[in-house]
Amino acid sequence: MCGIVGYLGPQNGINIVLEGLRRLEYRGYDSAGISVLGANGRLAVFKKAGKLENLRNIVSEIHPTSNTTIGHTRWATHGEVNDTNAHPHISDSMAVDDEYSIAIVHNGIIENAPILKKELIDSGINFKSQTDSEVFLGLLLHELYQAKSSKKADYMQAILNAFKRIKGNSAFVIQTTDDNTLYALKKGAPLVCGTNQRSRELFVSSDPYALVGMADKVFFPDDGILCVLNRQNSQIRFFDLEGRPSSKVASRDQEISMQVSEKGAFEHYMLKEIFEQPERIRTLSNYYLHGNGQLLLQKIAHHHPKQIHISACGTAWHAGLVIKNFLERFNRIPCVIELASEFRYKNPILSPEDLAIFISQSGETADTLAALDLCLEQKIKTLAIVNVEGSTLHRNANESLLIQAGMEIGVASTKAFTLQALTGRMFGDVIQSKKINSAIFDKFNLLADRIEELLRSADQIQAIAEEIYNYKGFIFTGRGDDFPVALEGALKLKEIAYVHAEGYAAGELKHGPIALIDEMMVNLAIVTPKLYEKTVSNIQEIKARRGIIVTIGPANDHHLQEISNYYIPMNYEGLDELIPLYANVVSQLFSYYVAKFKGTDIDKPRNLAKSVTVE
Ligand code: M6R
Fold first, then answer.
1. Which label site among 69, 111, 552, 587 has the fewest CB atoms less than 10 Å from its CB?
2. Whole-prediction pTM value?
3. 311 and 437 share a domain?
4. What's the CA-to-centroid distance between 415 and ligand 1, angstroms?
């Protein structure tokens, strides 16, 4: 979703902000812009629909300089994708005398924007865009003009007043003609400030990743905390909504481990991240068996919930389905799993002995955070299974397990899925035996070895994808433990290759979807030792209707190989409950290659965002 980067310091901030925006491209966006303080003492904006490159081109023609700069990548919610709707929004010609020159960037949704807009138009404010964001700027101007009539005009107070009037989750950064100050505040949307005391630079962003290597300390303000970044003393001060100094801010040194991720020899981040899985699995094992993770595990070993609720979205929800299977099979604890967007509105039946688990790569998914808040309000114990350290989910859940996936840049989540599921398995193992068992990590490392072998033969999957990427539709099937990965395979394929794909429990096909089968439909069948015969029968049903069968099945299974059009042999030996995670890597590669042959934008698929910070 929208990305925000702001800079104050001794350097020309333009390139610094553009670099920050480049790093946030992975979040998904459709236009980009920056605002600068011009030589005439007024703010100027440069903004362009499309890729960041378009913005860079206009900036490189004009060479603006500014010690204070804010930048934004927009992911459209209100108003089509065009230059006008891109951020920053600037106050020029919004009020009659244009006394103020203010620019704002926004991430989120102002839910009461239509009502406020009407009121502001009636009071003489002109709007230039179709966005909800501009309403905040209108409110701000309105507040300033009102205060001015009583000779008390004050940016800080006006910002707080305007902020109190909006509904919904949002983060804002506000630039004025005061070259020494930026203001930032948020509610339910990510915002981070950063400082570098040596270079006397200050930063603000929607994502700490933008600040890696720039800030050496980062601050995470609570909701409703106004951050005032001051260039003169290189300090950030924090205030509550009444304008009183506040300490409701978490801070930490910027993670050295959080390296800026580059693609290296890989053509896409997604492929790099698929190939990173063996290494990241071993990192997870080391971290929890020998590293700092031991303490985290010891802390949660006491859990013995009567029931577990799992909430997550998208791929993280699929990981939740895998974890539910683990917990029910090995711990015999009943698990209820809900999409976070449903859980938050359904008045879930929760009891004090329950545990609620939230799974998220980014730790910033709006629906997942809302589901977390609901449980926190009801005093239900909460556990996050999360990748991004310092994210809202990581900070706000009662306890957290970090999945050790490292930065995931590709919009399609791959390694995070595998590591979320393994973290869930590890959690179940620890609460079952009340201690850390090395055996579970041996199994994880065996999975890492098997994935490594599979990746060495990725070419066979590429060859299959090349032959069938133009087929009409793809149905992924699996039974029992493999059903969640059938869903995950279909999601991966549709999001990056833009083809119709569905995941089904193999036994369900004859209850409807089999009507779709003809010689242009592909069935990717996940066949593993459990329920083997049943799944093979389902394959026969599809074959009888001339569907194309791609089987992910046991090595040396000649019969299965014969009835399949394409066969991917797997070595399931010793993996037991981890088999679905191993088979899923085939689907990841298959989706990647189909997308590659289709020529889509694999790392930044259309309409999608890496971190979904609006509901
Ligand atoms: O950051 P999260 O794990 O909370 O994100 C949840 C979903 O938005 C995410 O998994 C999405 O479905 C991915 N694009 C799937 O590849």
1. 111
2. 0.84
3. yes
4. 12
